[in-house]
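Data follows
____________
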Amino acid sequence: MEEDLIDNTLENDSNSSDSKDKHLEKEGCIMLKQATPARICLGRAGTRYKTSTYLSLRADHAVAMDAVWSYVDEKVVDELGFFKVQTLVEDKEQYITRPDLGRCFSEQVLKDIKENCIKDVDVQIIAGDGLSSPAITSNLKEIYPMLVDGLKAKGYKLGTPIFVKYARVATMDKISEVLNAKVTLILIGERPGLATGESMSCYMAYEASSKKLESQRTVVSNIHKNGMPPVEAGAQIVQLIEILLKEKKSGIELKL
């Protein structure tokens, strides 16, 4: 069926009548489709998408919307032993409309973090829902053990893992300042697209603080089963953290 769509696309769009050229174009389309989840060589009905393509777009858009408005399964973070906190955001609607509140904690929450979490560590691991809760629910169970095992094998002191509800990336800065961590990383749900609603990113910074620039963060993105698998991403993150600790810098200051 997929090859029929490609034939239809080439029949409608090709300026060449040479069958050899069309055969080469068809092979090229097949190779491209195998290499990317992007919507290419889909065929059309007149000037519009085919019905099946349109319905697929609508379905994937619904998945993206659900990713933003859903919540992380807290059983996952509980099983992994995360200390749970919440930013100043009160609900999902406020999270979307007031990103500034997702970067801050109340004084009481900061006090709770300071009293209940290990301080002066080499690496502080944080997980936050971000703009895709399914990203954390789907990937955290695989990536977190890899991070812990890899970092402990290198002899690093790890902090108490923290889960932040209604988190933004800069959440990591406040936690780093309170706990005095050398390297702080946050695993956070990416803004969902039409290819997946489960993509997660890892932002890392050496001596993260609210005084530092966004460009001073090192990022590993597109972490999900159809992108960079969580276990593979975990191994890469461990290697990067080793470099951050050695060079005592992160982001664009770090020459990899």
Observations:
- The chain has one domain: 69-253.
